[in-house]
Amino acid sequence: MYSRIKSAVCMGIEGRGVCVETDIGRGLPGIGMVGLPSTMVMESRERIKSAIINSGFDFPKGKITVNLTPASFRKNSSCLDLPIAIGILSSGGSIGEVSEGWGLIGELSLDGRVLGVEAALPMMLYLKDSDLCGIIVPEGNAAEAALAGGNIHIVKDLKECVDLLCHDPQEVNDKCRLERIYTVLEKDCAGNNNEMSASDYGDIVGQEKAKRAVTIAVAGRHGLLMVGSPGCGKTMIAGRVAGIMPAMTEQERLETAIVRSVAGRSNESINSIKRPFRDPHHSIGRAGLIGGGSYPVPGEITLAHNGVLFLDEICEFNTEVIESLRQPLEEKKITHFRRGEAYTFPCNFQVLMAANPCPCGYFGDRDKECTCTQADIDRYRRKLSGPIMDRIDMKISMEKVEYDDLTGERNGLTSEEMRRQVIGAIEFAKQQGRETYNSELSEKEMSSFCALGKEENTFMSKAYHSFKMSPRSYSRALKVARTIADLDESETIKIKHLAEALNYRFQE
Ligand SMILES: [Zn+2]
Fold first, then answer.
1. CATH 3.40.50.720 fits 2-191, yes or no
2. How far apart (Å, rounded) are the C-alpha atoms in residues 233 and 312?
């Protein structure tokens, strides 16, 4: 007997349709699999057999052939366990014919439970878009089911799945289906509701200069480098950046949820999705940072998508690892090629870097003496150059907070105020007809949006010569000045905007 069950797998962050064909004929008992299954899929044969028997069904006798179509790409997911098991049961006559309107994903445990799978959200979205009447997914993926919407059912074991399949997908009661998803979700959320309240810039005393720089950086998506001795507060400044970014759009929330689903971090409720903040350690390898593996998985840059990537102690990172960031920073996505397949992951984020001023960390410090030789310092500083630094538009030097600042009145900017400034600047830029962030302005856009008046031109020409600026650092300063003017809601760039931008100039 023959059966066809619809399912999906995930490649990169995209769901792809897979049809599980099962045929049971005469011959030596066993399960043969064709259609490019990976080792992980091949192993499912043992799980499926035990799961079927332990759920109280008869395991069909005869030679079972499972074909995964299309055969053009390799399938590597345990989520095919459930459709294969159902295909075997249906072909063997243990259950009736399954309607083509159903789509299934899920891993099986030996006792017949249906276990949650990674990357369920893109697969559900794919199945939902392919006009199926009903989709069955593991209970463990309830959070994603709630987000994907559509006619999605959650099941806890093989038996429950079989019960559902006896029905026509359109007949199953909608109210029960949703109630079930939300009951599971509530139970899950009750467990991890101890989320700490986000930290606020209002708690940081005496770093108003750095807070201003961060506001500008976020408003124009400028890469920011913070240089200062250990303990001057670089990490505190960086850790709060996501909190001053504008609220996520629906599209951004969905993208972030997909990335989390693919990375297997989706057990939190969808409502708690915030802009991510990623701060990988400097010992991280290339694959960890940009993603990779034989079936590519997202790296830190993708986990930071729509949020913040903070590279602390940038000079300690392996040069080759940092270089690998260049292309993804430019294109805002990364593609890995494996066996003729392209796996593309998004990576659009705000980048922040921090560095000590010298290897020992105390060059120019008020209290502690630097013990580095000039050669050490030169070698160290050379690391702060190269193509990756093209993406850094602003640099600030930070100092330890003075005692007077610490004990003085606390009336610095709070995150809420900084966020309002950022949103105001972005809105203003939109009104002026700019769709991209200022850091991404092309040469052509710059000539119209960053045009300078006569006085401003003279001012910049003087600065260009006296600071020995390169054409690149000149154009970066102009973009930053444009953002400062936006924060000021000024149509034209004025001398005060240029003067402030020059404070953040970054000379390699
Ligand atoms: Zn030193």
1. no
2. 12
Distance from the alpha carbon of residue 506 to the mean position of ligand 1, in angstroms:
20
Distance 507 CA to ligand 1 centre (A): 20
- For ligand 1, the distance from its centroid to the CA atom of residue 372, given in whole angstroms, is 4
Residues 6+ apart with CB under 8 A from 423: 246
pLDDT over 60 at 508, yes or no? no
Q: What is the pLDDT of residues 276-317, one digit of tens each?
A: 999 999 999 999 999 998 889 999 999 999 999 999 999 889
CATH code linked to domain 441-508: 1.10.8
E-strand stretches of 280-407: 308-311, 333-338, 341-346, 350-355, 392-398
Do the domains 2-191 and 201-437 sit in the same CATH topology, yes or no? no
Domain boundaries, the chain: 2-191, 201-437, 441-508
How many angstroms does the Cα of residue 383 sit away from the middle of ligand 1? Answer: 15
201-437: CATH number: 3.40.50.300
Asked if 388 and 323 count as a contact pair (C-beta separation under 8 A), the reply is yes
- Compute, in angstroms, the gap from residue 376 CA to the centroid of ligand 1: 8
CA of 150 to the centre of ligand 1 (A): 60
Ligand 1 mean position, distance from CA 232 (Å): 15
Q: How far is the CA of 370 from the centre of ligand 1 (A)?
A: 4
Whether the predicted pLDDT of 465 surpasses 60 = yes
Strand order in the sheet with 223-228: 277-278, 308-311, 350-355, 223-228, 392-398
Distance 369 CA to ligand 1 centre (A): 8
**Cα 182 to averaged position of ligand 1 atoms, centre (Å):** 57
How far, in Å, from the CA of 330 to the mean position of ligand 1? 33
| Token pair for 219 | 């408003």
Instruction: Measure Cα distances from 286 to 225, 313, 378, 388 in Å.
Output: 21, 16, 26, 15
- Could you tell me how far CA 414 lies from the centroid of its own chain? 26
